[in-house]
Amino acid sequence: MLKHRNDGACPARGFYTYDAFIAAASAFPSFGNSGDTATRKREIAAFFGQTSHETTGGWPSAPDGPYAWGYCFLRERNPSGQQYYGRGPIQISWNYNYGQCGNAIGVDLINNPDLVATDAVISFKSAIWFWMTPQSPKPSSHDVITSQWTPSSADVAAGRLPGYGTVTNIINGGLECGRGQDSRVEDRIGFFKRYCDLLGVGYGNNLDCYSQTPFGNSVLNLHPFV
Prior knowledge:
GO terms for molecular function: chitin binding; chitinase activity. It comes from Vigna mungo. Helix content is about 40%, strand content about 5%. By secondary structure, the chain is mainly α. The protein has a domain at about 20-70 and about 120-200: Orthogonal Bundle (Lysozyme). A two-stranded antiparallel ribbon has the order 1-2. α1 crosses α5. The longest helix has 18 residues, at about 35-55.
């Protein structure tokens, strides 16, 4: 699935391992373990679709295609190169997320935020924690992709319906959703479809968020945590 994660050109080479992912996932029993087999596969495809976009090293003419290059990066720098906007598979950022995530998984991420970029199990746990945890007014990505979320009348009016597109809205809707066609959203969908195809599961409905109103400014990618 993560064909080029250990490529010599990838800064994260050697970091993201299967064993670390399994160890982290075991701390969240409902992750990839809700609903029927197709639902479980689709959730894994959605998780890796979103996290692969956040860590991609791909480009349009990349060997094996741009969607074979997930998990190439571990840290995301701002344009000046002086601060980190995010760490780990889902590029977790903001003191709010580091504090709540650390409390949930039992480590001090406020004082030791770089654990997300130096300990592979903690890194995966941070991503799965964000995936599993609703942050009002947003539901959790887990509940959306496993059809355990029922949109309110306000959600329906805003175009936020069950499907992968609403997961994108949860993660970075403030920057990517409700803007019409968007290359970042397309990239997320491309990864998702690749993993669904590998796992032999359908994509479901409502893959994009082009016409969705964002839930609000994302707490994931809009501000650095240093």
